[in-house]
Amino acid sequence: MIQRNQLDLRKFVVPEFICGYGALQLAGRYARNFGMKQVLLVTDPGIRAAGWADAVGESLTEAGVPFTIFDAISPNPRSGQVMAGAEVYHSEECNGIVAVGGGSPMDCAKGIGIVSSNMQDILTFEGVDRVPVPAPPLICIPTTAGSSADVSQFAIITDEMRRRKIALVSKALVPDISLLDPRPLTTMPLELTVDTGMDALCHAIEAYVSNASSPMTDLHALEAIRLIHSALPAVIEDPENLELRFSTLLASLHAGLAFSNASLGATHAMAHGLGGVYDLPHGRCNALLLEHVIAANYEAAPDRYDRIGAIFDREPGEQTTPAGEIAAFRRSIGITATLTELGIRKDAIPTLARRAYADPCLVTNPRRLTCEDIERIYEHAL
Ligand SMILES: [Fe+2]
């Protein structure tokens, strides 16, 4: 049954995507179709070492499209790396971008695109709808099942001077096409599989309880949660299983379609705070915060959280929040540390909370949180 507030007007932005075995090899054909004469192939050293950047390069060469590789990208990509990539894009006279990698290369590629078309510093695009000129064509090939940068309107870049993550949200950041191939996922290390899987779970849960959710985003969010619950523990046991890897990739896709349109919530606002100051893996920050945010948010959306709890085998009619089930799931896939064990000190919490409070992701959190509320949540996660 559609609820009254779900009649609100909603926009649903989705890029073209192709999913299935061998999708990666279509990069060259699409680059040519988009009229790319010189491609900037954006990736990172790990993906290069695993051979996936070469595989994409071969596809470009077969299609007769020359390319230049830019791989000077770290996890939690930095503003300076985006600007360096834009320099290469300009000096090599590129007119299109192909990104292969996880969230970091894809977010960096998005940044390079809008810097190149607008000739402005990446930090000037912080916030919602701040990109005046559309980016050049962008083809994304995700190699993790978590960030969903390949379908989303988001890019997260670290402002290295101020050591904080900025969120850029704009339709101009939606790639032109995503090529979703399960094969690159098979070379992901266990830790990355787990962290990115928990990131996808956070995307789906936060989108489902978001103030900007809609019947369309609910559909994708719930399917993502269901798929992650079943496929993520299984893929850890059998990492080279292509069917299982594909299930996690589909989960990430569904989660991406949901959160790109319904936005996120306090978990992401708080994880961005942590990631900026401590340079920690984004998915791990989310994983350690999620259950505490659920406990804090529960009363604002009990029916929705109960439905999530049911997917995680919570007994119907239980009088507690599903935070316990989510925590048990996290531990079952090997995430057992606390924020303290990751090096976060209590005296850093006021600064972290102020940053989370200013993050655009907080706007759609189902409960309106004060800075003090956010401090309490961080403290619970220590
Ligand atoms: Fe995320």
First CA to last CA: what distance? 40 Å
Ranges where pLDDT stays below 50 over 5 or more residues in a row are none
Going across the major beta sheet, what is the strand order? 1-9-6-4-2-3
Radius of gyration: 20 Å
Order of helices and strands: EHEHHEHEHEEEEEHHHHHHHHH
Tell how many strands the DSSP assignment holds.
Answer: 9
Largest sheet: 6 strands, parallel
Hey, roughly how much beta strand do the residues contain? 5-15%
Mean pLDDT: 95
Which molecules other than protein and nucleic acid are bound? fe (ii) ion
Helix content: 40-55%
Instruction: Give the overall form.
Output: globular
Structural class: alpha/beta
Instruction: Work out the helix count.
Output: 14
Produce the secondary structure layout.
Layout: E1 16-19, H1 27-33, E2 39-42, H2 45-49, H3 52-62, E3 67-70, H4 79-91, E4 96-101, H5 103-118, E5 127-128, E6 138-142, E7 154-159, E8 164-169, E9 177-180, H6 190-209, H7 215-237, H8 242-262, H9 266-278, H10 282-297, H11 302-311, H12 323-332, H13 349-358, H14 371-381
Parallel strand pairs: 1-9, 2-3, 2-4, 4-6, 5-8, 6-9
Antiparallel strand pairs: 7-8
Helix pairs in contact: 1-3, 4-5, 6-7, 6-8, 6-10, 7-8, 9-10, 9-13, 10-12, 10-14, 13-14
The structure holds fe (ii) ion.
